[in-house]
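User: Hi! I'm working on a homework problem where we have to compare a predicted structure to a textbook description. Could you give me the structure for the chain below?
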Amino acid sequence: MKALIIIFLTLGIFGGAAFVGYKMFVLPQIALKKEKDAPPTPVPPDPTLPDFNKCVAIRHSGKMVEAREAFAAFIERYPESSKIEDAKNFLGEINTDIFLSTIPAPEKQIYIVKKGDVIDRVANHLKTTDDILMRANNLQRTMLQIGQKLTVAPGDFSLVISHKQNKVTVLNKGKFFKQYAVLGWPPSQAKKTGPKAPPPAKIAGKVTDKIAWFNGTRVTIYEKGYASALHWIQINIKGCTLHSVADDNSPQMPPGGGIRLTPDALDELSAILSKNDPVTLE
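Assistant: Happy to help. Predicted structure tokens:
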């Protein structure tokens, strides 16, 4: 009888311990394995997607001005949307398509060429640049004809160069105009990373020059080769000249290096920007 009691007590003690061990150690492992093996929780649909698709539909319909307004409103209303970068890219393309072409827009000024008019005189009258005037009117040569209709949109541009976003963003009157991805930073502007890296300080500067190179020679908008030229946007912040040359040993690499963008980006920026346009490095 005593032996039976001892056996029952032993089973109770060790059985209880085994149960506690199973509950404390085995069950959590089983639950963890189930959690790992379970399919990922589906991401809830972005509630801004229907509005984004409406903007895209307007763009595809060819209504450029309406699409511009729709995307601008979307960006302002939904800054945290998963489609915010797509919306900015669409808006940037639309903005440059309108600004650098003959596409009608309410803000565009119309000028009728008079006797004695030349490109730079008309550009000064319209408070724009020769580059913009020629690109916006699809002019292949600088000669104008009396009675010719020219259009141009007003612009008040500034530039933000961001380490954090790895982008160069153009603003027009303080509002988003277009953004370009940075392909390469010079050592002097390389982004510092790590837990002790200080936040980048904002540095103010300005565009000091626009240079076009053709076959190693500087050319102007009036000279042969300008349409095929490589462009620099010189900025009075160390290491911030914008260029498009990938080879560090190229003679057309800015002295001391610079910030590399695509050739198409530099082609647009050289038309859009003017000397003294403000620049912020952050």
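For your comparison, note the following. The chain has a mean pLDDT of 87. Residues 2-37 form the longest helix (36 residues). Good luck with the assignment!
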